[in-house]
Input
Amino acid sequence: MRNYILNPLQGLPGYSLSYVMNTVESLYQPYKRTDISGNVIISTTDNGNGTANVCRNLLAEDKFQKGFTYTFPQNEAPNTMTATVEEIPIVSHHTYNYRVNIAQLAPSQTNLSSGTGFAILDCTRGVLCNDEPFIGGVLLSSETLLSMNVTIEELSSIQVKDPELFDKLLSQYYYKLRKDTESGAKVETIFYKP
Output
């Protein structure tokens, strides 16, 4: 019904109801999903403006409607593995696609064909990205590569955000620059200034 309301093709020649039909499996998707940022940093990119784009694993809490017998075969404790028709299953803190089997959709009860006897839904996970300001860092410098004579300089939040930081560095030196965000994400760059 939702697809028909969004795409009312009444009056068009050749209109087919199948255009707005969904699969039966789509009726059993989670009715509520809450996205939560996880603790695993997937990537960190320096934006060049004093901030870093930090992408973390996306955790989610999914709530499924009751009235069906669900099985979550790839689920891990402490979350539920199965749910009866009286329960509202809640699956949370996953960072991967996981499968949901619904017993009421077995071929013996519907006209669906399935090798396992159950409908299988894929629930996608991704990443959650935010810009975070740099709060400090460390600059290591050496005149010769792999030298034991290294200068270490702690950088303040003002220094680490300075757009002219590279221009102020000495020529003919090797550098390792680490910038830190408040949440602990790090951006490291190793370079030689000619």
User: Anything to note?
Assistant: The two ends are 66 Å apart (CA to CA). The chain is about 5% helix and 45% strand. The longest strand covers residues 127-142.
